Amino acid sequence: MKIKSAVLNGVDEEFKLTDMILDEPQAGEVLVKIVASGICHTDSTVKDGTVPMPFPAVLGHEGSGIVESVGDGVTNFKKGDHVVVGFASCGECQFCRAGMPGACERFNELNMGGAMRDGSHRIHTVDGDDASVFFGQSSFSTYSIVQENNLVKVDKDMDLRILGPLGCGFMTGSGTVLNSLQPEPGSSLVVFGTGAVGLAGMMAGVISNAAHVIAVDINPERLEIAKSLGATETINSAEVDPVKEIMAITDGKGAQYALDTTGVPVVINSAIKSLAIKGELATVAVGKKPVPVDFTNDIVTFSRTIKGVIEGDAIPQELIPKLVDFYHKGQFKIDELSKLYAFEDINQAFEDSKNGTTVKPVLVIDESYSA
Predict the structure, then answer these.
(1) Count of C-beta atoms within a 10 Å radius of residue 315
(2) Do residues 180 and 307 lie in contact, with contact meaning Cβ atoms separated by under 8 Å?
(3) Residue 136 CB: number of other CB atoms within 10 A?
(4) Are 281 and 306 within 8 A, CB to CB?
(5) 77 with 152: CB under 8 angstroms?
(6) What backbone phi and psi angles, to 5 degrees, belong to 196?
(7) What stretch of H or E contains 335?
(8) How far is Cα 301 from Cα 206, in angstroms, rounded to an integer?
(9) Model confidence pTM above 0.85
(10) Where are the alpha helices (DSSP H) in 151-305?
(11) Inter-CA distances, 263 with 2, 39, 138, 217, Å
(12) In this structure, is residue 190 part of a structural domain?
């Protein structure tokens, strides 16, 4: 079938809305009419060349939409179901079987390798050339083919235009706190970086009843947003030493938990130094530079832990419904962080994300949709 996709033809090029050809769903696959798709920093890492991918490529991995049809063997979804599209996982390796799909042994291959699980392609140019699929969905398209286990069914009374980012950015931040760090009530959590991922993690800290939920950034406007979402303290690290401020807030003990969403070496080292004895740092960012760490003096001496977390250590089918419930309760205000853009304004949306104008840009791909 003919679809419209935002195609990226090379590093640092702009997206071009292009007619493409999409195959029919094969066994275990679902055809989804995409309503909207969030723009995530990971999309930008392909655009700027940090993460290599064969071109032409159709990016987008925070899709939400409506099931159009299903392939053979699909039993959990039917035409008309409303869905959020998550990341791809094989479902067969030891980590997938243990309920840790973010640690899937084939994660990089299936999400950033450019092909589907069987090594073939579903998206093609009108001339017949294969296009790379991203995260098993390529949601910068009017339609998408995805594996059944990528999908999460959601209630039809929810606005699909704000739900897509639950498939990656919002899930990564909140899941890292709720699933991986698991701060106890009364504990202290500091979040470095108040983009979509960081603010989601911060809201999860509030949900966890942490006594101190500290937001650190250099953007005053973002810090004000953090306050409005429940941050107990904010620190502008362009003006003060964040480590000293965190130590003062925590009576000289340091934070028990920290989340880095920046990938910036100096920020990561500040996060480490701000930890208490036995403190834990989770880092989720795709950084561009190596991070030098003094393991003897900053890690071993204080029995601190650093862990990398992918997709919030989440099972999307378990976490996303919980996040929707938190949203209904007014605890996870994803609508306040999202700004809707027309599909043809995709390049402006990326620019607004890069310069910090918008926390979470969301492309409305199906303009006929109404909640």
Answers:
(1) 19
(2) yes
(3) 25
(4) yes
(5) no
(6) -60, -45
(7) helix 334-337
(8) 30
(9) yes
(10) 160-163, 169-175, 196-207, 220-228, 242-249, 265-273
(11) 39, 18, 25, 13
(12) yes
Claim to verify: residue 211 and residue 158 sit in the same structural domain: no
Distance CA 196, CA 315 (A): 20
Confidence band for 309, pLDDT divided at 50, 70 and 90:
very high
Please provide residue 286's backbone torsions phi and psi, each rounded to the nearest 5 degrees: -95, 100
Residues 6+ apart with CB under 8 A from 355: none
Domain that holds residue 222: 172-310
Percent residues over pLDDT 90 in the chain: 96
Q: 101 φ, ψ to 5°?
A: -65, -25
Q: Which helix (H) or strand (E) holds 22?
A: strand 16-22
Residue 301 has pLDDT above 90, yes or no: yes
Q: How many CB atoms lie within 10 A of CB 44?
A: 16
Same domain, 78 and 133: yes
Q: Mean pLDDT across the chain, nearest whole number?
A: 96
Q: Is the domain of 177 the same as that of 160?
A: no
Q: How confident is the model over 231-287, as pLDDT tens digits? A: 999 999 999 999 999 999 999 999 999 999 999 999 999 999 999 999 999 999 987
Q: List, for residues 51-90, the tens digit of each pLDDT value.
A: 999 999 999 999 999 999 999 999 999 999 999 999 999 9
Say if CB 72 and CB 149 are below 8 A apart.
Answer: no
Angle in degrees, CA 279, 280, 286, rounded to 5: 145
DSSP line for 28-71? TEEEEEEEEEE--HHHHHHHTTSS---SSEE----EEEEEEEE-
CATH number at residue 215: 3.40.50.720
Q: ∠ CA 28-33-34 to the nearest 5 degrees?
A: 110
Give yes or no: residues 119 and 143 share one domain: yes
C-alpha–C-alpha distance, residues 280 and 54, integer Å: 36
Which residue type is seen at 1? M
Strand order in the sheet with 132-133: 123-125, 16-22, 2-8, 57-58, 132-133
